[in-house]
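Schema walkthrough. Field components (list of strings):
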Amino acid sequence: MTTTPPGPRARLTGGVLLWYGVLGGAVAWAVHVLAAWGLDELACAAGSDRVLAMPLGRVVGLAVIVPALVTAGSLAVAALAWRRTARAQATGTQDRAYGRSRMLAVVGVWVNLLFLTIIVLGGVAVLVLPPCQL
Amino acid sequence: MVTTSTPPGVSRVDLARLTEHWAEPRSLRGWFSTVDHKRIGRRYLVTAGVFFVLAGLSALAMRTQLARPEAGLLSPEEYNQLFTMHGTAMIFLFATPMLFGFGNYLVPLMIGARDMAFPRLNAFGYWVFLFAGLFMWASLPFGAAPNSGWFAYAPLNSEQHNPGLHMDVYALGLLFLGISTTAASINFIVTALKLRAPGMSLNRVPLFVWAIVATAFMVIFALPALNLDNAMLFLDRRFDTHFFDPSAGGNVLLWQHLFWIFGHPDVYIIVMPGLGIVSAVLPAFTRRGVVGYPLIVLSIVAIAIISFGVWVHHMFATGLPQLSYSFFSAASTIITIPSGLQIFAWLATMLLGRLIIRVPLLFVVGFIVTFVLGGVTGTMFALTAFDQQVTDTYFVVAHFHYVLIGGAVFPMLAGIYYWLPKITGRMYHEGLGRWAFWLVFAGMHVTFFPMHLYGLFGMPRRVYTYASEPGWGGWNLVSTIGSYVLALGLLLVLVGVVHAVRRGRPAPPDPWRADTLEWATTSPPEPYNFPVLPRVHSLHPVWDERTAESTGEGATADRILSEGRNTLLTSELDARVERPVPMPESTLKPLVLAAALLVLFAALLVAWYPVAAVAAVVVAATIAVWLWPAGPSRTSGVATP
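Field assembly_structure (string):
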């Protein structure tokens, strides 16, 4: 039971935004790995170093930077959800949805840190290696 | 020992009704038609155990052949078949089904439900697993067993290089088996999301259930790649398509990519429930909850996702652009973080708790030692340069046996000893169990540790014999001796189980003073599991007084549900009560459908296409009869699922 009704800001800790905070990094990393690998692999196999008139290295770089930014956003949302559920619990809310949201927020913070690290570690090679070097 | 007195909070009338509604016919027909998740779970455990023995005997034959150089115990063809069946059976017919057996038996009990969400689908999954296993093993006495390794690389698997039925058995057998694995996975997901006891919100779900659900999702996403691979292989072999034939525009790397997109997540599909078992066993033997519950959930979720982005590390020697390697090298390295996080959480739990050293805890400690060693060499493979040096040597064989025996077999053995009192109602013999542990532990390390060394010395894997000059003979002899010690240890486990069933002293409902809901009911549980479906108030419901009260004086009619064969449907995230749902009675339809599928696959194997067509019609008709809308339930007005 809820002893105090949740405010509009606290309600942001549930629903689609929370799921973005939990799984946004995972989806962004999946897109990154498939896009970056696929572009590199297919373009090199076709003997080309350009995709849609852009240099392949730059395209692969975008496939690193954009997902990294999405993951950073997801991390921020998870951290925000974590703070808000902490505040709601401090005000004495008994609703078990807050406990569940808080756990998902903790999971989101750590999992997004993990995915951001993978994207950055894999992406560093874009600066060092030419795209089609075997 | 089954408690026969009336539990508090339930009237004799309610108990009699529950017994009547959930009773199963005590006849041969009843045996074949059961849909009870506990009986099906036990069958999974026993059947997978039998396939494990067969695969283990294959391994002993191979180790005997490899004990000395240039041995002639097995011919190359016999070795190839035993080697392939060993790997295929251990991965597909033992590890996953064994863990699904634990899941089948335990998930409904752990979440406070009366059965799986789809009991008939559950029975169907078991029968398909049994028939697919028999389908594959039956090929061995005819000399027609698969013979290209469990990974069946193209072009070794092609009709041109591998004539005969060998790889047709492989492709069709795995396609057949995939039906079972998919059905079981769907069932686990729906059961865990929709049938949790009231109050069991996501942050109160037992870690074993989290692990099983994550595994089920992984199966759903990973298995289609393997099914696609096998379907294309069958078409290539039987109908002259050219998916994997480079001379006609096909690509052999396509097989590898699709196989490992399935194959690497499959390692975690096998290990993940094992990690769940460890998280379930530890609280009972440390007298405290596992440290860092949200972080273990995090690592389960993270491992499940990242495992899909590491498949290319199996292909580091195939010549891809270096930039591509970096993405997969990073993911393969980082996956050690969530894995390590769980290890540290378990160590912290043992450090902060009060250790009660019994056989299940010994196997957990054995798991930690072995799995960490396997994980360390796994991290080495994430480094492209090292991987290219040792790939296809015995170093790899050592690594994956450390991971799979450490990560799955040790937890399974811990689970067998831990839940044996619940499943059989009998306690095991502690002395026998300890002997079994030390023999298994010593045998495992004596067998597989030397493989790191002779792998580094250059011995290739997948060879049926080797010359004496490189000096691998001594190390191989040690491995072979170790394998016999390991087999002796596993035999003692079997002796221990039989001893417990026949002579073990009766087990109380909760011999370990554990924390999860399966211990809140009788040993073994009644067919309806719980006379009162509990209301959960914490992560450790059996240690929580309010949950205990909910099944005693606080029992209410809406959680007894004695008017029919019912369980409670609850919401996915917070387990709020939605409505009672009726559960199906025993039926022969799952068995008939699985048998029709067996005829279909057997007819395809021997190219009796008219028979296959008839079997396909029978399959379709059985499915139609199965799905034909049932009349409204007499008790609730809701159609039977």
